[in-house]
Structure of Cullin-4:
Amino acid sequence: MSKTSDKNSSVRLKRDHPNSSLDEPISSTKSPSPPIKKLKNQHTTDRMDRDTRNHYPNGSSSAFISSNTTKKLIIKNLKISSLVLPADYFDKIWPLLKEALAAILNGTTSPTNEEQLYRHIDHLCTTSTSDTSTSPPSLLYDNLRKVLDEHIQTFVPILLNEANDTSDYLRTLNSIWNDHIIRSSLIRQLFIVLDRTYVLHAAVQSIWELNQDLFRRYVMQNTIISNKCINGLLKLIAQERRGETIDRTLVKNLIRMLIDLHLYRKDFEPPFLKSTEELYRNEGRQLIQTLETSQYLIQVERRLREEQTRLTHYIDQSTKVQLIHIVEHNLITLHIKDILAKGFDILVNENRFVSVALIYDLFFRIGQIGINDLREAFANYIKKYGRALIIDADKDDKMVDELLDFKEKLDRFLHECFHDNEKFSNTLKDSFEHFMNQRVNKPAELIAKAVDARLRSGNKEASEEELEKILDKLLILFRFIHGKDVFEAFYKKDLAKRLLVGKSASVDAEKSMLLKLKQECGNVFTSKLEGMFKDMELSKDIMTAFEQHMHGREVPGNITTFVSVLTMGFWPTYPTVSAILPPELCKLQEIFTKFYLSKHTGRKLQWQYSLDHCLLKGWLKEKTVKEFQVSLYQALVLLLFNKHLDLSYKDIQEHTKIQDADLQRTLLSLACGKIRLLNKKPMSKDVNTDDRFTLNTSFDHKLIRIKINQVQLKETPEENTSTTERVVQDRHYQIDAAVVRIMKTRKTLAHAQLMSEVFAQLKFPISTALVKIRIESLLEREYMKRSADNANVYEYVA
């Protein structure tokens, strides 16, 4: 550091200042140097740091003591001479200072140089006087306080006499406050030494705090001025809430004034929150009655966004929690029931995803109470709408498709509106399961038929990926049903037809669905289904061996045949039917029976004609050979017309011995369908016992291979009822087995406990009355008995 030109050594200490950094000299000379400007101070400090780094790289010396943040300069052999001011020094200097104060407060130029004033204040604050009875700093502070006190009181008449409207009044107050801040800052700069010496050690306010306190006491604690200010601010905010444009900067400045004067929390915030409460309470009551739900929600969101903007621009952040709570409470919490009851179902029905998402977001703001009510409304909607889909028997043919669409729609609401909230996901599953089981057995049956429709070859327009997605969706519906045994029964019956008639769209798709069911329900559920696939594979091996057996031998009628050998326990139960086959078929049947029984002893073959199908070759016109895909019954009827030109219904029945129901369906498919190989007299849509049939020799078709509708493969009401009855009977057996299993383990058990354990073990829906009936049946068959001491207690009979 370079040496100073002063004769006496001096030290410059950096002192705090609210607006600038000044180096203020403390010297024993009569004329202290004026403050060093900020730029010079910065230059000196930088040079000192640089010299320190150059000469003392390790940061230590006899002149400098290094620390983490500061460096202290120690000058040895400093000579300080004491100077005593004359007793009347304050009386001579104060008039000059008072004139300077008046100039600052009035915005005029001071007659005395600022540097001279600063030196005088420095002497008064740092130098002792010959008169020890008075303290110059104390006198200086008291006189300064009086001047400021008198000046600030002049603001009050101006503001009390201000009769302009709200905006002009607030602008006047803002102007006075801004001017006061500027003057206060200048005064603090001039009397900075007083602030750093006397005020620092005495129990008095700083000059800045003194100015603020006087303004608060005389101006803002005046009831009239305060009320005009607060009411004016509230009026401007109310205007902005009505959509009018206001001077936000003015409002921001005055609210900042209240904060600086520590009046915001006491004087402004309570009336502001009260007016806000009143506004939104009335607005909520009115709008919920007049606006549509989606419009009301948009209004609520807009109000919340507006209040957030006010918090950003002029309202203090300390008010945020209370302000937002008031809006949420009055526009949302108080109207939860009305919002949900008035429009939630409509919004979901109309797929208004944005509005439902807005409900969720708004309700989420107010906590768990809103979310719980929304979940309840969501559950009620699902149960109500879903039950309407299930109960209406007239729409059974569309039920599954509508359920798939409904589930997809709900999943989209769950994802887009409720953000995959776990509780809403569980609500969806529980509600869906609830309404799916409102109608016993039917949904399970229709889901099984829907799977059959997708897996049949008629669904080839769908790719493998699309088919897989559809099966996954159907499996989701399957999870919701309780009567999974009903699904199994119908699925097994339809699977049998697909496998035996070759109607399956894809073996891979069939096995994929079987794997899905196995993963969902376990091995026991799919064991019989897997057995059916195994039988089809074994049948291929058997036919390969049969073809080798027939190689070189005469085949009756040169007929190619394929026989599927089915294990009775795996496949659905089919009624035994009889029919008269052509001699060639009878002979072929005998050959295969002998071949099979020679390979497998102790077995019995039972032929199921109702599942047979054939490929006939023949011509009806101009010797054009056609191939007809028909059932065995259709083939037996058509072959009769090789020998007869005209046959009655009774003639056909006598020659074929086909049962009435099957024969009527067969003749209906040949004579009344789209492809008519027979002519019927009289012409009608039904087949009667007195009808007569002839071959349609004028038949023509552009295809070589023609498929005739196989009516007998379509499910009949009787077959449907039979399948359902078998399921019911199976359930009886399962209930009996469960009761016996429980009693065998427990030996003795009360009726209530037995009922409870039976319901816990069985997976399908059962009634209490049915379980009681099965218990009575077991008592009659002596699997168990009532206790001699208590009729409500059962004992197992070994």
